[in-house]
């Protein structure tokens, strides 16, 4: 059976499903011994705010929500204060809060979702994608490496250093 993945803007009615996915991801990070997402963030208010600002996106499989992320264009003030150097100083897309449903782990869906984010960037004529992750999120760091993201330095969120990455997208003809 062929999966019908779609990537679309999240709606307010999606919050309960998104929150279940995020709660399980928060718990997974805790069980892995991570400090990421262990400080009350993200939470349902953050998701609602994402959706109201039209930056919340879901990955779906035949209408079922299986992943969540926030995608912004040129909107990450902390990135201006990188300790290191970005590859470009051009417009950029940034994504945060990547979470995949417990039932769909290990299927490469974070990579698929990041592919959709890169497509979204190109559709908006933006050729740089930036992201960051916790120093102990080895799974995400491995995904960044596999997808050609370059480690650029450190950025700080809520007092914690995070590894910052950038990928310059090829112009698809």
TrEMBL record:
Give the N-acetyltransferase domain ranges: 5-172
Asked if the Swiss-Prot or TrEMBL record annotates the protein with the keyword Transferase, the reply is yes
Q: Which InterPro entries match?
A: Acyl_CoA_acyltransferase, GNAT_dom
What is a GO molecular function of this protein? acyltransferase activity, transferring groups other than amino-acyl groups
- Keyword Transferase present in the record's keywords: the answer is yes
Give the Pfam families listed for this entry. Acetyltransf_1
Keywords assigned: Transferase
Protein name (database record): GNAT family N-acetyltransferase
Q: Which organism is it from?
A: Flavobacterium profundi
């Amino acid at each position: 059976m062929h999966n019908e993945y779609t990537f679309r803007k999240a709606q307010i009615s999606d919050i309960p499903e998104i929150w279940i996915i995020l709660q399980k991801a928060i718990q997974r990070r805790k069980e892995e011994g991570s400090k990421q997402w262990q400080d009350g963030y993200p939470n349902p208010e953050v998701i609602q705010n994402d959706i109201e600002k039209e930056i919340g996106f879901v990955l779906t499989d035949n209408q079922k929500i299986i992943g969540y992320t926030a995608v912004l264009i040129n909107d990450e003030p902390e990135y201006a204060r990188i300790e290191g150097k970005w590859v470009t100083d051009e417009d950029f897309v940034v994504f945060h809060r990547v979470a995949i449903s417990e039932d769909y782990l290990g299927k490469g869906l974070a990579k698929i979702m990041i592919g959709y984010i890169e497509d979204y960037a190109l559709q908006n004529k933006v050729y740089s994608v930036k992201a960051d992750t916790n120093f102990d999120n080895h799974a995400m760091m491995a995904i960044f490496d596999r997808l050609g993201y370059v480690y650029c330095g450190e950025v700080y969120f809520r007092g914690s250093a995070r590894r910052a990455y950038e990928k310059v997208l090829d112009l698809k003809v």
